[in-house]
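Worked Example 4.2. Consider the chain below.
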Amino acid sequence: MKTLVINKKMKGQKGFSLPELVVVLLILAILVVLALPQVISSRRAFRFSGMQRQIAAALNEARQEAMAQRKAVTFLYDDADKKIIIHGGKFGAFGDAKNRTAELSGSGLEAGNIIYGRPGGAATSPLADTANLTPIASGTAAITFYPDGSVLDAANNPQNNALFFYNNIYQRDMAFAISVLGAGGRVKIWRYNKAINLYVE
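Applying the procedure from the previous section yields the following structure tokens:
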């Protein structure tokens, strides 16, 4: 008896009408359109923050290889092509097919979004570890690690270096720096803090 009543109730129910379905789909479409820019922005921010780790990992690799091979190994940032090149030792001379290379752009991050240097309005003072911006020369910034893991200048004195980057769309929101201490080759990541106008570790 109860089964019969339930069946009658179910037969009496109707599905969504066409106008109701159109309204639901329209609301969903509006929500997707509103959320899409935030999703894209989050993806870019995630990719750009991943670039910090990618550069730091390449610097650490160059240092470790220099120590393991007992030969000078150079980390080179190519600003024109937005890529990293590691050469020297088993990686061969610059331009050799054995060079280790890595593209910084891709996966939602365009090459035009990657800017070397500090964004407008950001502090230009050295980082807290005294490292300052490594200049671009002939379109590249190079840091050479020696067999003891150090980075030296022309007079064989330890030289601190720092690579600064920012996103040309979200300039001060995504700015960061990576420093390399000359004496031991230690690599540190710094993020720009707008509130205090400083790069913090």
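Helices lie at 2-12, 18-69. The two ends are 73 Å apart (CA to CA). Compare this with Example 4.1 before moving on.
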